[in-house]
Give the backbone structure.
Amino acid sequence: MKSSPLPMNNQNTSVFEKIILRKDVRFADRVFFWITRLIALLLVGLLVSMGLFLLNASSLAIRSSGIVSFVSTSVWDPVKEVYGALPVVYGTLVSSVLSLIIAFPLSIGIALFVNELAPAAIGRIVGFLVEMLAAIPSVIYGLWGVFVLVPFLREYLQPWLISKLGFFPLFEGPAYGVGLFSAGLILSLMIIPTISSISREVFAAIPRGQREAALALGATRWEMMKLSVLESSKAGMFGAMMLGLGRALGETMAVTMVIGNRAQIVASLFAPAQTMSSVIANEYAEATSDLHLSSLALVGLILFVVTFVTSSLARLLVWRVTRSQRKLK
Amino acid sequence: MSKLRQTWFGLLFALSSKTLLSASILINGAGATFPYPLYSKWFSDYSLVAPDTQINYQSIGSGGGIRQFTDRTVDFGATDSPMTDEQLKKLGEPVLHIPTAIGSVVLSFNLPGERDLKLTPELISAIFMGEVKKWDDPRIIKINPGLKAKTDIVVVHRSDGSGTTGVFTDYLSKVSPAWKERVGAGTSVNWPAGLGGKGNEGVAGLIKQTPASIGYVEFIYAKTNQLAVAQIKNSQGEFVEPSLKALTNAALAELSKMPTDFRTSITNASGKGSYPISSYTYLLIRQTMSVDAKGPALVRFLKWAMHEGQTKASALEYAPLPPALVKKIETAIDSITIGK
């Protein structure tokens, strides 16, 4: 708005009032204002209509079993028309959380390296390359997973983990290669660009003086990063993590290709599982019964609400942090 | 000079009228992925025979095909398993199931060094229910004495709903009461064991990569991926390898039981030399078609598919329809009426 040609003398009236009420505003400006406003509102309307569409499509499933029993029962049997979403909810949560556990420390490390440690030129290159990871289509991740990651896990990593840690239920065999573990690994690669670039933004918002103050007090480089960078960007890093989570929850193609697609709840990370998005992608095309379609839509609705809530929470946190720190500057 | 100009004009005129004509009739269809290689060959070949007709086909799956056909968003549908009585009721108008070819589902396995495997219906059901867990299970060794593998069996199935799964589970429900009781038949089922791969290519890929695995795919996917294929014991007690001949045998053996609306299953077929896991694939055509040019054009295409079309099937690993059946289908095609 700073570059707008409008007179901005009175801080109390909104831009809206200025444009609409004042007579000296040019016609073209008004038209432009209304067009952009319409486009923005259209998108909001689209979001709402998506939610309503899912609600409408899933009404049969909601009526027949109720949301609570839908997400708390674990049999998914299209032949007998019994639908319980617990295993796919479980698969989604476990694969996403697993990917966060792997991706979060790595991303923070990347962000610290690029922003605080690396010489500017190298930092730019590394930052650019990490962000390029986000541009790779997910089906490519999936193919890479199927042909490189999964065979490696099956032949080397998983047998080794099973032989060392197999007594622990999380690492029980057999080693199929595909399963929750591979899905978590692939997802972590896919969300690293998101988390690291948001974290970099959050770090960059911290005033330079804060770092210099720490160094002046005799802090080492690591102490400086800990005290003045990490300490004050906790909320922002949490927001970055939630945005990564939002991406991981909804990812479909790559996960479907490596997770083994089996709706079950097993303690072992090496067991095949199924996620909410992959069950929709798998079964929608061939679903013919109304209840089956409606149940798939209900899974979609739950996924929609969960990702919407996590993403908006994350945005809110990141926004608040960067705003308050910009003010400090 | 004037002659040359005339030829030019003539040519231009011919070209322009041809392009105008070629866009005149556009027929839309959607459905089964299983016959898609055959259908796309058919539609492209047919556009040369009848340049005024263009047929669009989207292979979105049998279920989607039935849905869109019911919603009247497409002119014809395609499905691997015939519509159920319930679906027909929902459709609310007479429909013809036109068989177009015969396809099969094969059991592919990955046992290093082994190309031969014999399986009985009981064994297949037990393996896919997770009851037979190891390759050296006495029940497997009994009919495959030379088998050296001792590892755990990795079962691979389709994760997406599919006509292939429909045919396979229909077969298992026929031959195994335990399977029928516990799992049943359908395009998506609640699998008791194994890993899921998306699409025939997903299952073939998993089998190819995972030692000691076994799974089911359409015949052509086993061929193109050079997967070993099991011989299956048919209802006559013979171990039969999948082949076009064995598919035709299955169709011929069940031909006398073919109902007049062609809605039938030929899994576990009787008769010598029949491969037991095979199925017709169908086009769904409205009994009364639209008055505009689409109806007659579709009828012309169907007739073409029953003759020239059939000769193109075997190159793509689909068995052509038995001639006796083609006659019956033609009678059905003739019964199609145009207009309300």
Q: What stands out?
A: Residues 2-22 of chain B form the longest helix (21 residues). Residues 17-22 of chain B have pLDDT under 50 and may be disordered.
